[in-house]
## 1
Amino acid sequence: GENVEQHPSTLSVQEGDSAVIKCTYSDSASNYFPWYKQELGKRPQLIIDIRSNVGEKKDQRIAVTLNKTAKHFSLHITETQPEDSAVYFCAASRQAAGNKLTFGGGTRVLVKP
Amino acid sequence: DVKVTQSSRYLVKRTGEKVFLECVQDMDHENMFWYRQDPGLGLRLIYFSYDVKMKEKGDIPEGYSVSREKKERFSLILESASTNQTSMYLCASSLSSQPQHFGDGTRLSIL
């Protein structure tokens, strides 16, 4: 089955700096890669996703890149703000967006003012 | 807005008890999922369902079962609760081609 590894497990950045989280996956048939943000005590919420026919996707200060050959994808947050502090999860799916996901272990991001 | 509701935010049970966790969604989603969340391990899939009365094992089904008698409701059952099942349990639902939406979670403690 699919295996997703996520690094780093914790990340501390100064407000205004960039944050990068990296994930690798094992199943070359995976074709959908969402990122979820979970604030303390709250539910995970989708922040961005990418499909395997696209190499990069941006949404304001957030971007995701995908390298299918190397089987890794990354989340980039620019101009970090205190409200970006949360746990971020990457995931991979072999089928369409609604199908079962395999998650990485999570990255706890702390943005210091 | 999608609403996924889990019946309890916090639950305390004793070892050996049969425990029911309920999840209801109001958006007519065909797919429903149960995960457990443990620090450093991310979210791990226990069971999922693509249709009423249909269920499939996820990555860690041992010690659990599920029931989906109605499209909007997906129940997770711990047949005989053990302390290693103390965890945060998250339910999610989705349409076939759309992202998963999560509930608020149930923090379950088995004493």
## 2
Amino acid sequence: DTAVSQTPKYLVTQMGNDKSIKCEQNLGHDTMYWYKQDSKKFLKIMFSYNNKELIINETVPNRFSPKSPDKAHLNLHINSLELGDSAVYFCASSRAWQSTNEKLFFGSGTQLSVL
Amino acid sequence: GESVGLHLPTLSVQEGDNSIINCAYSNSASDYFIWYKQESGKGPQFIIDIRSNMDKRQGQRVTVLLNKTVKHLSLQIAATQPGDSAVYFCAENTGGSQGNLIFGKGTKLSVKP
């Protein structure tokens, strides 16, 4: 029944490794996002996809690569993990693109710890 | 850069009292504002929204006030309960075809029994 679900909930890994976080929404929404929340709780958008097409790609290292196989899924792959990548990553979705003033529905987050 | 901020990073209230969480924004073009609640270990959850053509909107125990003159947004919670303890974020949509939701830093609300 979960509207926006992401896995895993926790991810602990070594520096230099490659990891993926998966996200799925069952709301029938057209737009999906990845946000990063730092230790001070600040939420910053990383990527946004609308109908599987990349709309927003903020200043994010190219080690981060989102992939949207269909509009219900947006996965995040991270190469060569660094200590500074440690954060909570949130997936979100909205009915349509934000230019139409749409609210976001968030997943429960993936806490990534890079050792 | 970031244009949404909060006056108080932490707020402690007594159960049953009213809470007021404030937010300042700097983008006068923003036309849509949302308040989110984030409980520990969970994702942000929508509380209430308001469009720029309104100055007040009420929900169940919550009221959002928008003052465009001074670019100020507030969230009022009536009869605060322990379950209201969380971090509250305001967010603004900067508008336009590339409209983007930008989040403020968050205020932690603690409710004392």
